[in-house]
Amino acid sequence: MGTDWASTVRSLRLRLRLKQGAMAELIGVSQTYVSRLEAGLVTPPAAVAEAIVKLAEDPRTRSLFDDLRATVEHSPFPCLLLQTGPEGLRIEAASTIMRQDFLAGEHRIENAPALKRLTGDLEALHRQGLADGNILGASAVWTDHDAINRFWQVRYTPIRDETGASFMHVTLADLEDSPAARAAANDAKPRIERFNGSEG
Hints:
Order of helices and strands: HHHHHEEHHEEEHE
Low-confidence stretches: none
Shape: elongated
Number of strands: 6
Helix content: 25-40%
Radius of gyration: 20 Å
Largest sheet: 6 strands, antiparallel
Oligomer: single chain
């Protein structure tokens, strides 16, 4: 699938807080051309596309979302960044341990047996208003069925990138076997924190 240059250029320009003229100078084109790029009327030639990508990947201009994606990919802990939306869940980034121990070679969350609880939790969060922006975060405790008496504390944090697309940052922390962990693991749905301070 090709790059959506219209949204790429617009989100980069807005992230850098540039007017179209200033963006045009940085990538070597006219202000009118940047306007046409953002409107989706033109596709940049290779040299301009390279300049846009170089500007986007420059550590000095990289977005917080790009930093989060890199943090997830290089984390020594099991964590995941999922794009959520009408098309379903798409893996944006996953740590090595998440790929090896939980995804086990699968490229879709729905096909990974170890993440069955995750898909159920995300469905519950959507029913509770995740798409409406009312959920600050959620947590749950999972039982690892492949290892006796192993529990995971799971944290769900909804975020949006600079284009407004919705994502879910998921982190897992190993819990010691305890009565509290066993009791929490019996909860059928995640504990939700809302922006108004209420919990559900």
